[in-house]
Design goal:
This protein is mostly helical. The chain has one domain. About 75% of the residues lie in helices and about 0% in strands. It contains 15 helices and 2 strands. The protein has a two-stranded antiparallel ribbon. It is globular and about 55 Å long. Pfam families: Alpha-E. It comes from Dokdonella ginsengisoli. This is Alpha-E domain-containing protein.
């Protein structure tokens, strides 16, 4: 397979998963705000920062230093093409990557992805209103899952498919760590500091739901949501497809099916997998998660770089 084709398949799967996760995240925060009492406000700053979009947002909205306006944050995360990680930017990048390799994938995949991008472009601004917001989010999530189903069921599981799996797993692991970080940073801001503990479970429940993990958490853990249990589940559960450990184990299996290209990808993966598996949830909840999540994200960045050097530029 040409390295150009492999790289486009890899990036297509990353961008598609990024669009889906961003849509899910905004959908859950939308519902969370409706559920919170008026005395409690939702903080957009931690969410923007952990998604790597804080600096860009504040540069575009200089008046937001004191408080982020909901409508501006939602537009920035969903539809602002000046934000390279917005849902629309991710859909556009996925469509552009897929366009150059259309001959290698089923025609219905291109029709689905292209149709989603065009629909969002035509209906997105209207759908930003709270009344219609979930229509936009559900359309993108459903179409992304349909595209994933087409790839899983209708594409030969050859070397090209392995690059698709590789991109999906790396992107999901990265997004999961970012959402864990956002949850720990304090998305819910009660007026009185002593009320924060009362809302901690609600905050972590929103993180689980943003990853479509709440029902599986209840099935595996069989306890009420707590920061320690939620963190342990999202980092270390070996059976849930969006947990960091599951994604990294999937990458290890995928690399074993691909032509060997040196040891750099395996070494980067081994280091990152050890960070996820050895994390002490109790200690991290007490001392703070950000540094540990940053280390995992750095490991994922090194893995991405090693894969690029080995298969796309080697």
């Amino acid at each position: 397979m040409l390295s150009r084709v492999a790289e486009n398949l890899y990036w297509f799967s990353r961008y598609l998963r990024r669009a889906e996760n961003t849509a899910r995240l905004v959908g859950v925060t939308n519902q969370l705000q409706l559920d919170l009492p008026r005395s409690v406000r939702f903080a957009w700053h931690p969410l923007l920062d952990t998604l790597g979009a804080g600096e860009t947002f504040h540069a575009l909205h200089p008046d937001s230093a004191a408080a982020v306006v909901e409508s501006e944050a939602v537009h920035f995360l969903l539809l602002d093409e000046r934000n390279p990680n917005s849902m629309l930017s991710a859909l556009k990048a996925a469509r552009d990557s897929l366009r150059s390799v259309r001959e290698t994938v089923p025609a219905e995949l291109w029709e689905r992805v292209n149709g989603t991008f065009l629909w969002v472009g035509e209906n997105g601004e209207r759908a930003l209103m709270r009344r219609y917001r979930m229509d936009l989010i559900n359309r993108v999530v459903d179409d992304s899952l349909t595209a994933t189903g087409i790839l899983t069921s209708n594409v030969s599981h050859d070397i090209g498919f392995q690059f698709l799996r590789l991109g999906t797993a790396i992107e999901q692991a990265d997004m999961t760590t970012r959402l864990i970080d956002a949850g720990a940073s304090g998305l819910i801001r009660p007026r009185a500091a002593e009320e924060l503990d009362a809302y901690q479970a609600t905050q972590w429940m929103s993180v689980l739901r943003s990853l479509a993990a709440y029902q599986m958490y209840r099935r595996h853990v069989r306890q009420r949501v707590s920061a320690r249990q939620a963190l342990q589940f999202l980092l270390q559960n070996a059976e849930f497809p969006r947990s960091v450990t599951y994604c990294l184990a999937g990458i290890r299996h995928t690399l074993s099916l691909m032509p060997p290209k040196g040891r750099a990808p395996e070494e980067a993966l081994r280091h990152t997998l050890a960070l996820a598996r050895e994390a002490d949830a109790d200690e991290l909840v007490e001392s703070g998660l950000r540094e540990w999540m940053d280390r995992i994200q750095l490991g994922l960045a090194q893995l991405h770089h090693a894969v690029g050097e080995a298969y796309f530029r080697g």
